[in-house]
Structure formats: structure tokens, C-alpha cells
Specification:
Largest sheet: 7 strands, antiparallel
Strand content: 15-25%
Radius of gyration: 22 Å
Order of helices and strands: EEEEEEHHHEHEEEEHEHEEEHH
Distance between the termini: 24 Å
Helix content: 25-40%
Number of domains: 2
Strand order of the largest sheet: 8-9-10-11-7-13-15
Structural class: alpha+beta
Shape: globular
């Protein structure tokens, strides 16, 4: 139990810590003013989207049980994953990676799917450039990283655009302060809020008095998603921030790739995609030539400076919707391998990827 102050009043907050492996029920009844029962004895409470696609706490209903049980099983699988990492720490990383990916069912992205992903990227980039031109926005010089996602499976068709926006906003786990595919519906600046264009939600966020971010998003009810973001090194401020177009922060890059995969999985589950669904991802980094790896955001992590002579890198991965959090780092490794390889053959340590993604998902970064 914690107590927080809001509008001059102190409110009790019931906190269930992360990592639970069994459902938690109330041991005693809590009664409020006027005899109103606030918490029922022996009842199980969950955070649910079943009320108008907005997050709320309520007694578990029949359709909530599958999600609740899955959370508990995922936490148990995470414990198993930690067990294997501890006991196999001295084994060959490449061989272990191949073993885990084979067990998880990872396969190369099929050619037809890859073509669809590339079309999403090109359409998204064209839409971004069109809205920038239409609004006569002048952006600072920057590199970019883009993500395309196809939720390849069966799920109920979303018919209401407003409900679809509610669903995405409420299901984004927001693992970082500025997540992948952030919701800007409540932003003060109207031009930063989503708008409908060609049966999709589009959002443009550009630097203003409160933010230096450059983001563009396109989200379709059919399960196709696109994200464009400036490389963080080019828009950062502060004493340690590098000059634009000179640096790539490797730790931050790994974290954002992991977040993109996790958010995509959360979106697919919120859409109620079936268990056979595959999440097809494509990543593209542009403006890399002449950049140097520089862990300036995490100075405690020492990485030898290496420079890229290649300007653009694309990588793709297929992630089953039922992928457990403990195996998500293996998919991150698949995505980042081609990126870091252009920096003089650099291979990002697999154990560090495991550590960073575990901290990301536990919100301990």
C-alpha cells in the first residue's frame, strides 16, 4: 500500500509488484464512506481494457482470465530463462542463439512479406515528407530510424477509428519516457495530435518549446504500423550530447529496438490476434555514414569507437505473438546484428543485450 497526494488530498494506492507468478486476491474487504464496498474479500482485480478500450481496475471477468494467466506464465518463463542464462553463461553465444531461435520458431522473413514491409516503409516516408512540405516545416539535419510492422494473423476488424485510437493508446506499455508509437492525443499543441489520412491514423511531432523530438507515425486498422524517428544523437541537448550526424549511441539503440518489438507485440495482443499470428518487423537506419559508436548517454558502458562507411542499413525479423519476454532479447540480436556490423565489424555483446532488455521490460533502466 502506498499513499499519494493529489489536489490536496491523500489517496491510498494498492500496488501489486511486478513478477507475480500466481493471481493475487484480496484477503479482506475494504469499505468506504457510506458503506460502499471498494474492495471485495476473495476477489481478484486486474487492469483491463474491457470498458470502452480504456484502462481501468475491475474484478476479473471471464475474458480477462486468459491475459492474467498468460502474465503469470510469462513471469515463470522469465525465471526459467534466468536459470538457463546463469548456468550456460560460459557457452558459445552464437550456438546458444541458434538453439533458442530454433526452439522459439523464428524463421527468415518471407520475400512476399518483405516486399509488403518495404512498401509500408516507402509509403510512410512519403507521407512524412508530404506533411512536412504541406506544413512548411523546416527540420534540423538528422539521421533516422524507421520501423514497419505487419500483424500477420487473424483478428477482429476494428470498425471505429476512435475506438482503434483508444486501443493503441491504452495498450502501449510505455517502457520508456518517450515510447515507440507514443500517443499524442492529449498534447497541448494541436498540430502534434493524430489525424486521419487515407483510412489510417497519422501523427507528426516536430521540435517546439517543450520537446526536440522528431517523430512521424502511421497506424492502420488492418494491422500495419509505421514509425519514423530522428536518431536521438542528432536532436539531443546537454553537455555530453554529440554534434549532429557524428554519433550513434549503441546502448540506447538496443533499448529502442527491444521496445519496438515489445510494443508491437502489445498492439497485436490488444487487437486480439490469434495464437498463430506472426509479427513481421522491418527496421531501417539512414544517415549512418561517418558516424562513430559513442556511448555518451551511458558513460559507464565503455565501447571502443568505431566508424561506419555505409549510410543505410535494413534488417527484418519475424516474432511469434506468443514469444515469451525471456526470449525477446534473441530477436533483438537478430535486428541489431546488421546495424552494428557496418561499424568496423562490431558485434554487440549478447549478454549485455539480455541485461538491457530484461531491465527494459522490468522498467528498471
Amino acid at each position: 500500500m502506498e499513499f499519494v497526494e493529489r489536489d490536496g488530498f491523500v489517496h491510498p494506492v494498492v500496488v501489486v509488484p511486478p513478477g507475480v507468478r500466481t493471481p493475487v486476491c484480496a484477503k479482506a474487504q475494504l469499505t468506504g464512506y457510506g458503506g460502499k464496498v471498494l474492495v471485495e474479500r476473495d476477489a481478484v482485480y486486474v487492469r483491463t481494457l474491457n470498458s470502452n478500450n480504456t484502462p481501468s481496475t475491475a474484478k476479473v471477468q471471464a475474458k480477462d482470465w486468459s491475459d492474467l494467466v498468460e502474465i503469470c506464465f510469462n513471469n515463470r518463463e522469465a525465471d526459467i530463462g534466468r536459470f538457463f542464462r546463469r548456468h550456460l553463461a560460459g557457452s558459445d553465444p552464437a550456438a546458444l542463439s541458434e538453439l533458442v531461435m530454433a526452439i522459439a520458431g523464428k524463421a527468415p522473413v518471407q520475400e512476399l512479406v518483405l516486399e509488403r514491409l518495404q512498401k509500408i516503409v516507402e509509403r510512410g516516408r512519403a507521407s512524412f515528407q508530404a506533411v512536412i512540405s504541406d506544413r512548411t516545416v523546416k527540420l534540423p539535419r538528422h539521421g533516422s530510424w524507421e520501423v514497419a510492422l505487419i500483424v500477420d494473423g487473424q483478428f477482429p476488424q476494428q470498425t471505429d477509428m476512435g475506438e482503434f485510437a483508444n486501443l493503441l493508446s491504452s495498450s502501449n506499455p510505455s517502457y520508456t519516457g518517450w515510447p515507440v508509437w507514443p500517443s499524442s492525443r492529449q498534447f497541448h499543441e494541436p498540430t502534434s495530435r493524430p489525424y486521419v489520412m487515407d483510412v489510417a491514423w497519422e501523427t507528426l511531432i516536430v521540435p517546439d518549446a517543450t520537446s526536440r523530438n522528431i517523430d512521424f507515425m502511421r497506424q492502420q486498422r488492418s494491422g500495419c504500423f509505421y514509425s519514423y524517428s530522428a536518431i536521438r544523437d542528432d536532436i539531443a541537448a546537454g553537455d555530453r550530447a554529440p554534434a549532429p550526424m557524428t554519433s550513434l549511441e549503441p546502448i540506447f539503440t538496443v533499448i529502442k529496438v527491444g521496445e519496438a518489438l515489445a510494443v508491437g507485440q502489445a498492439f497485436a495482443k490488444a487487437l486480439q490476434a490469434d495464437e498463430q499470428t506472426k509479427l513481421e518487423f522491418l527496421f531501417r537506419w539512414s544517415g549512418l555514414k561517418g558516424r562513430m559508436l559513442n556511448s555518451w548517454m551511458y558513460p559507464g558502458r565503455s565501447i571502443h569507437p568505431r566508424t561506419s562507411q555505409q549510410d543505410s542499413v535494413t534488417s527484418a525479423v519475424t516474432v511469434p505473438i506468443e514469444t515469451a519476454p525471456s526470449t525477446l532479447p534473441e530477436y533483438v540480436k537478430v535486428v541489431i546484428w546488421p546495424l552494428f556490423e557496418v561499424f568496423e565489424g562490431f558485434a554487440f555483446p549478447g549478454s549485455v543485450v539480455d541485461e538491457l532488455i530484461a531491465k527494459l521490460l522490468d522498467r528498471k533502466l
